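As a warm-up, study this chain.
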Amino acid sequence: MAGTGEATYAPQGVLTREQMAVILMSAYEVATGGHASAPAAHPFVDVDGSYAATRIAQLAGLGITAGCTPTLFCPHAPVTRGEMAVFMIRLYEAVAGESPVPAAPTFTDISGHFAEAEVNQLVGLGVTAGNGEATYGPDVATTREQMAVFVAAALATATAAE
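Now compare it with the structure written out below.
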């Protein structure tokens, strides 16, 4: 993971969707030893000029993202912990070639949330223990340091599953 400037990482900084695209594609390439090609036509109309446009297209091509709408990626929007769980499980599946087994529900704040299944899969992989006190915080913005921990843990388990 690159920093946010010369000799800075900004661990408490909120992770944006375009930053996440770069991180996930770099992790995918490290884990698989390969390079994902981008689709010929870019699927999202709001990423022209983004430094991450190619990485975003690659994520879409691998099925790791469908965007925030069918035609938008929302590159500058923050990534919530729920969204990050979905992205991490899709990355895991792309690398390991299988879906992880979910743990029994442990968090009181994810019941009925769109990312409930993925959060439980992350727990099953041992990737997350939540925010403490039986909560996960699915609608809280993901920080850069949290993303680093999640990517490292998910890739370790995905490459072990290969």
